Amino acid sequence: MDQCESLPKAHTLIQCFNTCLQIAAPAVLFKSEAIVHPDEVAQYIDKEECQLSYNPLMMALMWESLATRETKLLTASLKKSFEISDECSWVNYIRCHDDIGWTFDDAIADQQGINGFEHRRFLNQFYTGKFDGSFSQGVPFQENPTTGDCRVCGSLASLAGLEKAINTDDSTAIEHALKRIRLLNSINLSIGGIPLIYQGDELGVLNDHSYLEDEFKRDDARWVNRPAITQDSIELANTLGTYQNRVHSDLNQMIKLRKTNEVFGVAKTQILETYRPHLFAYCREHGNGRKLLAICNFSEHMQTLPVSICDILHGDNEQATKQGQVIDKLTGNPVTGDLLKLSAYDVLWLELSEGGK
Q1: DSSP string, 171-188
Q2: DSSP one-letter string for 5-23
Q3: Cβ-contact 326, 287 below 8 angstroms
Q4: Angle between helices 116-127 and 56-68 (to 10 degrees)
Q5: In which band, very low, low, confident or very high, does the pLDDT at 264 lie, cut at 50, 70 and 90?
Q6: By the 8 A CB rule, do 325 and 158 touch?
């Protein structure tokens, strides 16, 4: 079968449209929805073509890291593909109104000892709840029973384990699910780019299975994550003590921090090696020298990391770290001792306090 994606004339056509719009409506930006190989996605991202682009690679691999509890594929992939032109921006998302497909570079996966074909089958089983021990409650879309190929639908809360944990009344599983949601939101908001939040995820809404009762929707599983946003949903999110309020409050806190710190805006992102299989880290640096170091634990077990990773925040000023000048922006707590400690699915947003600059 002939390849019909990303042909040269497709790029020429988009560039022509872009040129016309620069004359007729110069404020318009082009956004690519190129759900293709990561190397081909990069071909669309250019000032003269698409100034914005969905980031399907990061979306898929955040979920992959939660399923495996390992971040090697996420780190290796983003080290290769995250950096783009300063004149363009990623549009980041955790899931969308349609479905999740496992887009990643099989060559990079192979370098990490991962068989791409078998790994996608595993991820499909895991996120549709068919894999023993899975926390997720996703729904298959366009499933091929013969090959096991499918795409996955579900709300953020249900995919992250909250629906299953509530159904089993498992308090530990509920806490882990809430922290998974916080972890994904933290990366979406802080790694660099424009964050999208899809309908109901800001309210902790679970899968909506009512579509199965509608003859016009029951054959399209994507309706499971297209819920009607009701007044009850909003009230639950604003009621102290509810799971929905926890999701809503965690997200609101991070949005407020994002709004008050320029390092979340126009800044460079450096993907870091932690040399810890369960941790993912990156550093944001604004043009004025201000930096933020984010570290995420993708496992349910406590992880530690030498505090020396914070050297990236202050260069050679090691004494500043020892005096507690590095603080976690999410909690306000200073960094002390020789080790950073991250509890289950924990996130750190580390920066130098005013005295450490």
Answers
A1: HHHHHHHHHHHHHHHHHH
A2: SS-HHHHHHHHHHHHHHHH
A3: no
A4: 70
A5: very high
A6: no
Tokens of 105: 């570079």
Distances (CA, A) of 172 to 76, 137, 141, 166, 250: 31, 17, 30, 10, 18
Tens of pLDDT, residue by residue over 201-241, are: 999 999 999 999 999 999 999 999 999 999 999 999 999 99
Confidence (pLDDT) at 148: 74
Please answer whether residues 143 and 150 qualify as being in contact, where contact means their C-beta atoms are separated by less than 8 angstroms: yes
Nearest alpha-carbon partner for 92 in 202, 196, 198: 196
Phi-psi region of 268 (alpha: psi -120 to 50; beta: other; left: phi over 0): beta
Structure tokens at 270: 């450096």
pTM higher than 0.90: yes
Q: Give 334: exposed, middle or buried? Use CB within 10 Å, 0-12, 13-18, 19+.
A: middle
Which distant-in-sequence residues (6+ apart) come within 8 Å of 108 by Cβ? Answer: 73, 76, 77, 80
pLDDT digits (tens, 9 = 90+) for 54-96: 999 999 999 999 999 999 999 999 999 999 999 999 999 999 9
Contact in structure between 297 and 71 (CB atoms under 8 Å): no
Backbone angles phi, psi at 22, to 5 degrees: -65, -25
Of the CA atoms within 13 Å of residue 328, those in its CB half-sphere come to 15
